[in-house]
Structure formats: C-alpha cells, structure tokens
C-alpha cells in the first residue's frame, strides 16, 4: 500500500502521458499497448529487448491503473466524471489494468450476477451502475441500462451514476458490481432507490476487504443498516467467496418517511498491490 501511495503522489504531479508510444497512429494515441515495440534496438535483440520492453510497459501500465484506481476511490462521482472528461484515454488505461487484476480472481462477481439474472425472469429490467465494458448487458437476455463515466460502446450511457437519466420506479434490478467507488457512494444507492420499482432488487458485489472491520473495512452490519434505512430489506448476504461479498436487498413496498439522518459507514478504497 505504501508503494501505491508513493507512486500516486508522483503521478499526481505528472499525469500519465497521453501517448505511450510515439509510433502510434493518432487514433491509437491514448491507448496503452502491449504489442512489442518495433524500435531498432528491439529488432537487434528481439527476444531479450522485447521481453524487457514488455515488462517495462506492463509496469508502467500497472502504475497508471493503480493511480487511476486510487483517484476513483478517493473523489466524488462528479470529480471522477470531470477527470475522465478531461482525458478519456485514462478510462481505457483503467480498464486494461482492471481486467488484468480480474484475470487473477478465481471467479468474477459479474458472472455470478449474470447467473442470478439467468435464474430469474428475463423480463426483469436491469440498471447496471458502473458497468465498465458493459459485459453484463451483452450476456443476458434482459433489457439492461448500462451506466459508466465513459462510454466506448453505444449501449453504455455516460454519466455520473448519482444522476442517471432514468425515470423513477422503472427498474426491477439495480446492480453495483465492484462499482461503489466514490466518496459519495451513498448518492449512487439513493439513485438506485429512486429508479427501482417497489420490491425491486438491489444487488451489490464488493471487494471483501472493504467490509472486513479487522483490516480497517466497514462494519457490514452498519452498511446493511444504512441501506435498509434508505428503504430496502436485506434478503441475503453471501460471504462465501474469498475475494468479494454479494449483498442482496429488495426495495420496500412502502417507504416510511425518514426521521433521522442515515449513518453511512465510510468504505475504504480498494488499492491493488503491484504484482
Ligand atoms: N461492473 C463492471 C466494472 C467494475 S469497475 C464489472 O464488474 O466488470 C467499476 C466501474 O465503476 C468503473 O468502470 C468506473 O468507471 C465505474 N464508476 C465509478 N464511479 C462511477 C460513477 N460515479 N458513475 C458511473 N460509473 C462509475
């Protein structure tokens, strides 16, 4: 973690360069590439140099991923939206690193959510909050509204998910798969509550350590209580996976007017270690 913090300070002063490879055509300018570089030194010693360059590139891209990841966990959704508006290439960098990290997980939570949807009526309308590359929508029969900060796909709606363009009470299932990232995460859950129909589902998959009080994570009971105070009932909490927890809630049919402020526990950032 110390290592991540040190790196992040350095990068804050020096944002990742838009182009990692001067040979890139302009339309690829902002992409981090893992292709071997065609420089003369690489050609002279193809095996040794390209391995070295590949390693250096992977290290650089891993560093960028960890920096962007930390930024997303430590700013509000509005700031995150502006951050990516400023330089949408950072979003690609983030997702290259994210997929790399995920490839080491024995099971990806998004697949469990897909299975859950496949076991329910395909007529359920879904909102995927923080959809990433929108793979949930691509793999289920349901109508899915996919939201993320940047849209690289026409099916993804770019917005800060605390303010989606959806009408109220139109969604059957709201999904947050590893996406409760902002410091104002409660606003995302409030938005989910607004767009969900009465008795609609709220499915949350989150990194396990964020809900482990023994390692500085939030108390899952406090989190669950806050979500219930917002107007949900807890249906199931699944801690069986080593990497993530799955929390299933249902929106209450009738909401009592709230007399007191909801106490939202702080959710610590999930900082990935250098591999
Ligand atoms: N749910 C996907 C991606 C998880 S990565 C999956 O499981 O594969 C978390 C995603 O949440 C990122 O793509 C990030 O951009 C998005 N995100 C974080 N804060 C957001 C916000 N305020 N509004 C919209 N998307 C957000």
From TrEMBL:
EC number assigned by the record: 2.1.1.-
Top-level taxon in the UniProt lineage: Eukaryota
Main location: nucleus
The entry's keywords: Chromatin regulator, Methyltransferase, Nucleus, Repressor, rRNA processing, S-adenosyl-L-methionine, Transcription, Transcription regulation, Transferase
Ranges of Basic residues composition bias in the record: 7-18
MF GO annotations: methyltransferase activity
Signal peptide: none
One of the record's GO cellular component terms: nucleolus
InterPro entries noted in UniProt: RRP8 (IPR007823), RRP8_N (IPR042036), SAM-dependent_MTases_sf (IPR029063)
Alphabetized Pfam families for the sequence: Methyltransf_8 (PF05148)
Polar residues bias spans: 35-50
Region called Disordered, residue ranges: 1-50
UniProt keyword Nucleus present: yes
SUPFAM superfamilies (alphabetical): S-adenosyl-L-methionine-dependent methyltransferases
Cell compartments where the protein resides: Nucleus, Nucleolus
GO BP, one annotated term: rRNA processing
Protein function: Probable methyltransferase required to silence rDNA.
Family to which the UniProt record says this protein belongs: Belongs to the methyltransferase superfamily. RRP8 family.
Protein name, as recorded: Ribosomal RNA-processing protein 8
Source organism (scientific name): Castanea mollissima
